[in-house]
Design a protein that fits this description.
244 residues, seven-stranded mixed sheet, binds zinc ion, globular
C-alpha cells in the first residue's frame, strides 16, 4: 500500500489525507467509510476503494463523527458517485450534529478572541462545506451492522454532538477528534476548537473505559496497545482541566 493508505487490521485501512484521516472498512457485504476527509482527499479515498477489491458502487455506508469541514469534505460527492454507479451509500450522522450538517455549518464556534479570531474567520472558508442531505441519524448505544457490531457512542466535547464508533470484537475504536495524535503526541480534544473541555474529558474517560487495543483518530497515526496510553493522557489531562 502507498504511504497514504495504512493497513490497520485485515480489511481496515487508514486513509491519510492532507490534514485528516478517514477509514475504509471492507466488510463482508461491502464498504463502510468513517469520515469523509477534505475535498482534496477524494482521489485518495477512491484509491483506497480500488485497493480494497470492492468498487465504488459497493460503498454502503458513510458514517460521520462530527460536523467539521475536514471530516465531511467528500461525503456528498462520494455518495453521489456511488449512487450513480448503482450503490446505496447511506450517509449516517450523529443525531446531535444533524442540524448543523443539514445547514452546512460547524456545530460550534471556535473559542478564539482578538486577532486570532479574525485569522480563523479568514481561514474558515478553507473548512467550509455545503449542506449535507443525511439518510439517517445515529443514536448513542445503537449497534450498526458493521464488523460484527459497531457501537455508536456519544462523545461530546470536541463538538456538542460528536460521536465515536467501537467494534467490540476487534477492540477497535474510531474516536474521531475525541482524541488526537498530532506528531505522535496523544491527547484529548482541548483548546480553541473544543466546544466544552469538561465534556471532552468526560467523553475521553468513557472511551478509556472500553480499554481498546487499537485507537483510530481523525488526526495522527493509529495507536496500538491503546488502553494504557489513553489512560495516561486522560489522567494527565484530568489534572490540567480540574486545576484550571
Ligand atoms: Zn478534525
Amino acid at each position: 500500500m502507498s504511504a497514504t493508505l495504512v493497513p490497520v487490521l485485515p480489511g481496515i485501512t487508514q486513509i491519510r489525507g492532507g490534514i485528516v484521516n478517514c477509514y475504509l472498512i471492507a466488510d463482508a457485504d461491502g464498504l463502510v467509510l468513517i469520515d469523509a476527509g477534505m475535498p482534496a482527499d477524494e482521489r485518495r479515498i477512491l484509491q483506497a476503494i480500488d485497493a480494497s477489491g470492492w468498487a465504488l458502487r459497493d460503498l454502503r455506508l458513510i458514517l460521520i463523527t462530527h460536523a467539521d469541514g475536514d471530516h465531511v469534505g467528500c461525503a456528498a460527492r462520494l455518495q453521489a458517485a456511488a449512487r450513480a454507479a448503482g450503490g446505496a451509500a447511506r450517509l449516517c450522522v450523529p443525531a446531535g450534529e444533524a442540524a448543523s450538517l443539514a445547514a452546512g455549518k460547524p456545530s460550534r464556534e471556535l473559542r478564539a478572541h482578538g486577532m486570532l479570531k479574525v485569522a480563523l474567520q479568514l481561514a474558515a472558508s478553507f473548512f467550509a462545506f455545503k449542506p449535507l442531505a443525511c439518510d439517517a441519524t445515529l443514536a448513542d448505544g445503537e449497534l450498526l451492522p458493521v464488523l460484527d457490531g459497531l457501537q455508536v457512542l456519544n462523545t461530546p466535547g470536541h463538538t456538542p454532538g460528536h460521536c465515536s464508533f467501537y467494534a467490540g470484537a476487534q477492540r477497535l475504536l474510531f474516536a474521531g477528534d475525541a482524541f488526537k495524535n498530532f506528531g505522535g503526541r496523544l491527547g484529548v480534544s482541548d483548546g480553541m476548537n473544543t466546544w466544552d473541555e469538561r465534556a471532552a474529558l468526560h467523553s475521553a474517560v468513557r472511551l478509556c473505559a472500553l480499554a481498546p487495543d487499537v485507537l483510530c483518530m481523525g488526526h495522527g497515526p493509529v495507536v496500538r496497545d491503546a488502553a494504557p496510553a489513553m489512560q495516561r493522557v486522560v489522567t494527565a489531562h484530568k489534572l490540567r482541566v480540574e486545576t484550571g
